[in-house]
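FIELD: query
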Amino acid sequence: MPTNFGQLVMGPPGCGKSTYCKEMAEFLRNLGRNVVLVNIDPANDVLIYEASVDVSNLVTVEDVMNHKQLGPNGGLIYSIEYLEENFVWFHEQLSKFKGSYFIFDCPGQIELYTHHQSMKKIVEKLQYSGFKLCAVYLVDSHYCSEPGKFISALLMTLSAMLHMEMPHINVLSKVDMMAEFADKLPFSLDYYTEVMDLNYMLECLQDDKFTKKYKKLNSSIVELLDGYSLVSFLPLNIKDKRHLLQVKNSFDKANGYIYNAGERSDVQALLACAVGSQTESERIGIDRDLYTSTMEE
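FIELD: result
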């Protein structure tokens, strides 16, 4: 019986989830992988890709808002709970594509991944039915522009990792836009991707006119994040094939696809073309120069 591998693409609104799904699907198809795109965002009524399975055929946020007199957030929560209750329908739709690689485009409502139970239960049912899954959690690089934003992004990411309880990789998206606010960045790109010593970030928080009044809270949050030491990011410019390959290698390890083989020669050829013999330090240096250098006037 063929194994179904896949990834759930999560993250806050505007972080580039749908664009990632579209571009990563094309990248994987060029490697010869049979990719199925699945939209499980009932609020996404304008897809930029062709979804083989679309939850909007079951429920939409607009219909829920009209019939249940709920707002957008309540309507989305209700819709995901409805999908959980009708998992049999969902599984039947997915079963039409056995042996494929699935990319699930998830909603952007953060509480679905930090404390609400329905998304977690849907994932558990998928895993029980034989899916080998991992989470790809996207965070917009603009969160790096302010210390408070970056710390909140780390907390948000850590909460999702602990709550969802599944193999998890984190991606710092839109790094090609970082040059636009490079003058606001107190540290280099690798500091944010590797989440280095947060005591340096704490010093920035204590100097900020808004966050400095929460000195004890800031210290406690940094201590919490350092204590878990789980969060790091892969940089992603969606048009940079080096980044796509790096992310692909990470999620293939996370969900076990790498042990399924079948496309090794193609990947090795692509690796030789895209990366060559670069060392890790050389790669980080290239990214730093490309994505965090101040834009020319």
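FIELD: remark
The chain has two domains: 4-186+232-291, 196-230.
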